[in-house]
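Local shape tokens:
==================
===
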Amino acid sequence: MKDDSFSLTPALLLNAYAAGIFPMAESRDDPEIYWVDPRRRGVLPLEGLHLSRSLKRRMRRGGYTATLNADFAGVLAGCAARDETWISAEIHSHYTALHSMGHAHSLEVWEDGELAGGVYGVALQSAFFGESMFSARSGGSKLALVHLVDHLRHCGFTLFDTQFITPHLESLGAQEISRAAYHLRLEAALARRANIHSTPFEPDIHSVMHRMTHTS
């Protein structure tokens, strides 16, 4: 749905997430913002994330590092660097502001000193709203999601909202639920406090794999 009568602000964005809706633009050059409230919603389990054999092999092979909030601007730019993107200039500026306020966060994966992939989203109480992800190298976004899910679980988060379902997310165990079911989960998550900085970020690959193996 479109609304031309409002001025988008970081505070309005947070209120929208709390109400179960999120903004999009038709393209990077579109000045209009659309509020989206999908009939079917994607969620990623914080317990029981599915690691395929190939993903486990990639993690065991190593050769990469993961960081939290080390390059939010780089992740945002990576997510927008595609032929078709909903990340307009206005959306870009407001999520940058949310990051400065401590509400938007990024998880980066690095190989050879360069960004291999990443994911960013918004945290509100014990809910994390995944906004976008990218891969500059094969598997970069999946590695970022694994490390992010592991950290969110350790910090007490209870909901990972992926907005929509893609084959990429489905391979990790993402599920599609009804709007009504999502709002119930959202209400419960907003009633519980969590902080993404309450537990130090632990990027050790073997420790993450051990925890994931024992919860999947």
